[in-house]
Amino acid sequence: MQKANRFKTKDFVLIGIIAVIYIAVFFIIGFTTAAINPVLHAFSPAIAGLIVGTVYLFLAIKVPKFGVFTICQSILILIVAILGMGYLPWLIGMFIGAALGDIVAFTGKYKNKYTIAAASGFMCTGSASGGVIPILFFVDHYRHFCIDKMGMSAEQAEASIAASAGRIGVIILISTFVFGFAGVLIGSKILGKHFKNSGIR
Fold first, then answer.
1. What pLDDT shows up at residue 1?
2. What's the CA gap between 126 and 96, in Å, rounded?
3. Is 136 helix (H, G, I), strand (E, B) or coil?
4. What is the DSSP letter of 65?
5. Could you tell me if 128 and 172 are in contact, meaning their C-beta atoms sit under 8 angstroms apart?
6. For residues 37-42, average pLDDT
7. Which long-range contacts (CB under 8 A, 24 or more apart) does 166-169 make?
8. Cβ–Cβ under 8 Å, residues 151 and 22
9. 49 vs 184: CA distance, rounded Å
10. What pTM, to 2 d.p., does this model score?
11. Could you tell me if 57 and 184 are in contact, meaning their C-beta atoms sit under 8 angstroms apart?
12. Between residues 117 and 37, which one has the greater pLDDT?
């Protein structure tokens, strides 16, 4: 590994801060949408993508090194697991999404706005897949998780399952990628001169 690509202590500190910001955004959106209705909550990863796209872009600007997204997502996975919300398919989806994100962003050397946007799309979709794939393929196990681990009533669990079942689940995954992608493009405008001076094009 080239010396320039080695992570420094300050890189890990920034990644940790970004991870905390991400999880704060995720939980705020998650709890807010859950309080409104199950369908809106099912699309919470897509909604979050519009916001965290800016966060991912900022991270790519500050730490343009292979593995940065995977490290950030691993911190999120650890936090989620500590909080007792570590549903295995969700954690696996988050990790795979981040790994794909790093691979895609690396093809543009973390200097291409569109490969970073695609990386954001994969990471957001990876998170969303943890709620969709189990419903599509392991619905009984997911139902028990919602009731036994998340404290949902049987009615709430069924409503959550219905909100992501069948074609709706596919729509959720596609829209999450699109929103995650768009979040980086929006972020490039929000960051303004900071983005223009980054060398990302």
1. 43
2. 6
3. helix
4. -
5. yes
6. 84
7. 166/136, 168/39, 168/42, 169/132, 169/133, 169/135, 169/136
8. no
9. 9
10. 0.86
11. yes
12. 117
